[in-house]
Write a sequence for this structure.
């Protein structure tokens, strides 16, 4: 249940004094408590070296509407868990969506999942992370994902006399397709269908990315392979000549940098293709050194384990130090050699990171993550980002010293789908045996909050949020080909914490029932064509939302405080020391939602940035929707300055 008048804390700069503490740092944390909560004492509980310890918070600001409590925490361990214990007099009435609920007020825990009148496990505790911080540029990043075979060709790759026709220079495994040919979505035939996009084609269309407003170009794999998706690499030592080779990647990076864009690559550390030079060497001499580069199949002597049983994808054995060395150790390693100006890439997304280094009784996933992170840091001087693919609970894999974040399918994509999917369209989600349910906003926000609470704030905001990818149903199809609902999806994506990722073509309304069907060629020829495959109005919406996000400190770096979530509407605040932003998203028309100004300090000075569904009426803001849509309002944050650390503070432990 969402209650706007509850005490609040999150890991953002408004509530935590240091976003990048080091081991031994003293960090101030504070809680905003509405006066109606009648809180008389606040204590912070930490667990240094595994033993719980309590410190008292003190009042640093008090007025007619709220009280701010501040305490200090020493980062005694690399990851410091903390939560707050609140004391108050009498019962505290919490305003519910239906019937008010009365809870005992004298014993309440506040953690990342909210307020609790009972003891709860530590899984949702807030966390301070003292490991080296992610690169500063990631805080304001907006990522644009490109599937290189389907984005654009350059002129040199076009067949003579037949621009847009099937390429004539493809290898034997490939089936050539003209740019406007329909997709072949057959399980075996689909991956062989090649439309012939190139990296120079991407380079020639970078101005589209600039006009859209994104800051990072994310390329799915570019290494040679025997499929159009290239997750079955045959080598990591060169860029696929079909895409233009090594030189084309460097040209693309240089052109991107000239436009203020960074380039993210995609690496498979879990497996290679069965035509990879490493695996060919293993097959040629199974008892030789290369034979142990892949996980042996204990159930089939003489063979190797394949990823999810796919014969063409043998699984790398990270228990072999030679494998990890080849991938991450030194300037010639796979991860390092492609990073940095003049090398082609600035960051990595890691495919199947959740399975990398794991098989039966072996679990080296954290070691692989740490070594990959170290390689990225060495190659970029700490300015590189590494984001891991993960499709379910990732809390054990993002503790701060390995992956900077994940692709947040579980904590954002899936719950967003359950709210936005069309009533008549129920897709499956990445291997689930059941169709995605359609839920009300209360359950959706409960899911988002729960998944957000089990990871450090730093990991949450450096994870990529997305409403779809090259592996999923397209958002236009998900919402029943309703451009208004796509706008709502875009608004939720671009106003939420995290690094928003847009898959190429979503901004112009590209459809697709599932992953392969969604990997359609970009319809460049339809730009400006009435009734074509290029939705210019939708593109304008994406541009405007990206512009709003990048101009707003609250949307790029603020915390999140939920105000309302019920059926067809969500309302939340993004709060930053410099600005507060109210966001309202509605999947359908709904009656006015009253928000008391006492719970929204400074909102009397609010100004609209987008939408017309919010109005000030007396001592309330009224939020309503006559149809599908969104609103964004902003006002200066009203919050006290940080108090200095007390002179008698002795470290709390």
């Amino acid at each position: 249940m969402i209650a706007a008048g509850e005490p609040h804390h999150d890991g953002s700069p408004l509530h935590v004094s240091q976003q990048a503490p080091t081991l031994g740092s003293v960090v101030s944390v504070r809680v905003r408590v509405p006066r109606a909560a009648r809180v008389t004492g606040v204590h912070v509980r930490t667990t240094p070296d595994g033993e719980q310890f309590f410190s008292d918070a003190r009042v640093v600001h008090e007025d007619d509407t709220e009280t701010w409590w501040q305490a200090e925490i020493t980062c005694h361990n690399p990851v410091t868990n903390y939560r707050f214990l609140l004391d108050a007099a009498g019962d505290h009435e919490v305003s519910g969506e239906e019937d008010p609920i009365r809870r005992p007020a004298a014993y309440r825990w506040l953690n990342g999942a909210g307020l609790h009148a009972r003891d709860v496990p530590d899984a949702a505790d807030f966390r301070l992370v003292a490991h080296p911080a992610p690169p500063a540029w990631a805080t304001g990043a907006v990522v644009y994902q490109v599937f290189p075979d389907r984005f654009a060709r350059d002129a040199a790759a076009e067949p003579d006399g037949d621009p847009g026709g099937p390429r004539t220079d493809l290898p034997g495994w490939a089936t050539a397709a003209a740019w406007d040919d329909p997709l072949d979505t057959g399980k075996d035939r689909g991956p062989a269908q090649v439309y012939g996009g190139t990296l120079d084609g991407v380079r020639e269309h970078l101005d589209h990315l600039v006009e859209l407003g994104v800051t990072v170009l994310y390329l799915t794999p570019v290494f040679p392979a025997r499929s159009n998706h290239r997750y079955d690499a045959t080598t990591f030592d060169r860029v696929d000549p079909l895409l233009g080779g090594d030189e084309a990647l460097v040209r693309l990076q240089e052109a991107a940098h000239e436009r203020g864009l960074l380039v993210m690559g995609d690496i498979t550390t879990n497996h290679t293709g069965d035509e990879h030079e490493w695996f060919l060497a293993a097959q040629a001499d199974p008892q030789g050194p290369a034979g142990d580069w892949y996980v042996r199949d204990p159930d089939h002597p003489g063979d190797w384990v394949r990823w999810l049983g796919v014969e063409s994808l043998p699984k790398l054995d990270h228990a072999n130090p030679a494998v990890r060395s080849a991938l991450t150790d030194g300037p010639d390693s796979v991860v390092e050699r492609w990073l940095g100006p003049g090398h082609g890439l600035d960051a990595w997304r890691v495919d199947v990171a959740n399975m990398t280094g794991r098989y039966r009784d072996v679990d080296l996933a954290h070691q692989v993550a740490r070594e990959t992170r170290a390689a990225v840091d060495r190659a970029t001087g700490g300015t590189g980002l590494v984001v891991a693919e993960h499709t379910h609970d990732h809390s054990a894999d993002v503790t701060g010293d390995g992956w900077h974040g994940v692709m947040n399918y579980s904590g954002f994509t899936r719950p967003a789908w359950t709210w936005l999917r069309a009533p008549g369209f129920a897709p499956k989600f990445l291997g689930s045996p059941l169709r995605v349910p359609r839920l009300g906003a209360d359950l959706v926000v409960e899911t988002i909050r729960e998944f957000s609470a089990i990871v450090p704030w730093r990991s949450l905001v450096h994870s990529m949020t997305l409403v779809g990818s090259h592996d999923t149903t397209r958002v236009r199809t998900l919402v029943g080909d309703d451009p208004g609902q796509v706008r709502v999806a875009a608004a939720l994506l671009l106003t939420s914490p995290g690094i928003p990722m847009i898959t190429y073509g979503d901004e112009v309304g590209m459809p697709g029932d599932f992953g392969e069907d969604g990997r359609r060629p970009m319809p460049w020829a339809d730009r400006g064509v009435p009734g074509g495959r290029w939705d210019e109005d939708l593109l304008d919406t994406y541009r405007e939302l990206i512009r709003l996000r990048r101009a707003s400190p609250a949307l790029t770096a603020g915390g999140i405080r939920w105000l309302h979530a019920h059926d067809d509407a969500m309302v939340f605040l993004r709060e930053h020391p410099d600005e507060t932003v109210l966001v309202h998203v509605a999947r359908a028309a709904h009656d006015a939602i009253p928000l008391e100004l006492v719970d929204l300090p400074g909102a009397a000075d609010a100004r609209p940035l987008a939408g017309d569904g919010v109005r000030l009426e007396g001592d309330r803001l009224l939020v309503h929707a006559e149809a599908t849509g969104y609103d964004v309002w902003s006002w200066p944050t009203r919050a006290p300055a940080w108090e200095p650390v007390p002179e008698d503070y002795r470290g709390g432990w």
